[in-house]
Fold this protein.
Amino acid sequence: MSEKARPLLSLYTLNRPELKAFSSEIRAVLTSDDREGLARTLGLGAELSARVGKGARAVDWFLRAESDPEAAPLFASLRRVAKKRALELSWTSAEPSLEGRLRAFDLLREDARVAGLIDKLLDAERLPWFLVRPGATSGWLDKARREDLAGEMRQLRPSLPKELVAFADAIRDLDGDVVAHDML
Amino acid sequence: MGFFDKAKQLLGLGGSTDGEEADDPSPHATTPGAKGRDRKDRPPLVDQPAGTGQSVEDVLVAREAGDTAEARKILAQIDRGKGLRTVLRAAAALEAGDEDEVKSLLAAVAAEAEGWKLSLQIAGALGDPAAAAPYLARAIAEKAPVWAIAWARAASSDPAEQRGGLVDLLFEDARLARTIAARDFSIPGAVVDVDATPRYAAFVHGRDSIRRFGAATVARLVDRAKGGSR
């Protein structure tokens, strides 16, 4: 029996103003129930455009579970456009064990400040709903907190395992705000 | 004292004390390994006092059957001096024109109406946007959380207001939004989120009970308790 590969955590440079703008656009078309506007914003083809035209309200599509086969491609389109407009892939870990190390490596956990910053970076509740996927690990840090985390991890570098060293380097080399995600 | 009893005591959840355990006459406490219990040692069953085991649901069922007197009787029995039961008891008294009972409960109703929760439950129960507006405004003034306001708006009978509420909910608390979509709107493909369910249940019981009781009467009562004009 083959095991499903564990996802790899990636870091993205976040264009926060652009993400806010995209979020506002989506909110506006859903609030006004502008189906054509929604299809245009998401760059939907004819079939999916027709699909969002159905139902009582456009927002109902995004109140469905992501596992719903009819809604799944709409969620995927939403994330694709959000990613294209506001996120730039900076780094992907080569190690599936990275998340476990971040959440449990004792040197990181013993320092409440470092542990708090990591927990924020891996807290999906802090991301807009359209970037959150069931079962995925995700979160974000603003520039100041990212720099804080990078500085703290640099001091610990000699004692860190290789996957954390690579992560520490990646988060240091990034510019601005950062999003962590393993299923984007 | 067993490990779990000790843990429960530390957590303030009760659990037996050493003294109680030493005095416990039950066979299982003093003879570890004893099989089963001697049924002859069980205390006799006592009749439950009237009203025990009844709930707001029984009140609403009685009212829906047209038996408002029985509903009031149950409310008097189950009222604990605060909470939804007191509010409904006072509302039933108001409806029946029982001024003495209304006056005796008004202070408790006013205390219950502090904060945003009851106002929002009334707004959601009223449905009609114009009627709900003052309660929504009161809840906002009382610093109701955004998700709660959005939820009350989503319960509106006005389609645009309802849609705006659902969108706000989705952006504010997607888990709760999906739970409401599944439970309140039966949107196809929407699934209840287990993490949001306790919050959903805590709010919806009050709102739906008020709706079934008669939201306009509860609103009138709360206005009076808070010194309003109605």
